[in-house]
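Exercise 3.2. Students should predict the tertiary structure of the chain below and write it as structure tokens, then compare their answer with the key that follows.

Predict this chain's 3D structure.
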Amino acid sequence: MDNIKLADLLFPDVKLTPEDLEVQYPPRELPEGARVTRFAPSPTGYLHIGGLFGALTDVLAARASKGVSYLRIEDTDKKREVDDGVSAIIKGFEAFGVEFTEGVTGFGTEKGDYGPYTQSQRVEIYHTVAKRLVENGHAYPCFCTAEELSALRERQEAEGALIRGYFGKYAKCRDLSLEEIEAKLAAGLPWVLRFRSEGSEDRRIVFEDLIRGKIEMPENIIDEVLLKSDGIPTYHFAHVCDDHFMRTTHVIRAEEWISSVPKHIAMFKACGYRVPKYVHTAQVMKVDDETGDKRKLSKRKDPEAAVSYFVEKGFPREALIEYLLTLLNSNFEDWRRANPNADAMDFPFNLKKMGTSGCLFDLLKLTDVSKNVISHMKAADIYDRVAAWAKDYAPDFYAVFTADPAFSTAILNIDREVPKPRKDIAKWDEVPAYLDFFFNEPDADPALLPERVSPEDAKGILACCCAHYEPGEDKDAWFARMKTWCPALGFCPEVKEYKKNPDGFKGHVGDLSSVIRLAVTGRTNTPDLCTIMQLLGKEKVAKRLNAFAAKL
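Answer key:
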């Protein structure tokens, strides 16, 4: 067959050559060993936590080698695409500080010299490469209808074929003559472009996965579709063209793509391109609440599957990244202990330290990590972040929280800049309830009084506090003053002394503090009570003490 003539018939408007593209997208000038990685989502909805996991891997792998990471949008599947799905993806990355060197930066915007970074804008590139494949005999047009392909599958099933698909004796259009093709084209029949596979059922390929080692698989024998009938490429073909001309060195993607490697390698070789290194990462899993078994995070069942969930709940970006790094590399926690104040993104990430089994996403562990991260933040930083979160997700709280920024910041600073800061807050959506008693009168429950303290004794403690409280005293002076009230109230001023002779007293000085805490805050556990009372002011404290006494 005259393949040059066939190529001109199929692609009469293609004037570029692959050589032109090589000039337009030259090899990158990067240091020896620098990795070029890509994250390539489809704009089919929100950013999945598994996507953030994968993107973080790409960014860190490139960063650790002084290379380049880029964001490519694979929008060739128009049926599944959602309106402005790109913005949802970008917002997810921005919320958690994941930044690519190049690529799509927003709806219709991008940066870098190897674009366009959106596949639907790269059709000329795909057609140029496709035309060359036809010229070299590596691709051909297929005119089979959906009904014919369905009949083919039924035939294969009836014959018990071990491999199903369009190949060998089942590839009806593979050996059409030029005359037959010309006639079908003249008749206006729709066609797809298929890859002419040279694989054999008897041969196998071996490739090196950077975290899984050598993998052996059967050669690809399927004549895969390269271009659909509308001229848009399939994922497989676009991947080959884009990763070559964007000069990707490492294809990092989920393990579900391992089965596609043979067809991708075959296409790279047919195009004359160097095959990139492959890294297939483990899937993000969770323990099913009902069965107790591990399973993939589900968009339908698990709200935490969406990155937007963590934005709405108000997890700090540092906490989620910190937690994901514990899943990505087994040595991250050791590094963190040795570098407690370092930016997590400076971690010397190593692809070979990634696990091959499913990563178990544990919300409880993330919560612990987040509490620790927040405990080391400055109060002013927390104020800014809580205000930004509340503006979008808790407008009523935003109004009271931001009415007096200095007051709210002082609240957040209680027990913060100390050697062992409290770890009460895991995410911003907990802050409204956590700070509620500062902005609203507490509804203290008498049932929460210490067991040793009767309502009558509690009244005496509250009356004593009302009469003798001095807001100007520091924590030590305040506690010393409470001790002076103890003898008259029948309580022991020293806890150790009380433990030696519990029958000699109604309780100890800690019980006085507990009663006052309950009256002022409505809670049995809070940050430093002395500071809380100072911030509330003597008048408000007295009002709450009297209100609780009246309840008793």
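Discussion points: The chain has four domains: 3-15+123-235, 32-116+282-376, 379-439, 446-551. Residues 49-64 form the longest helix (16 residues).
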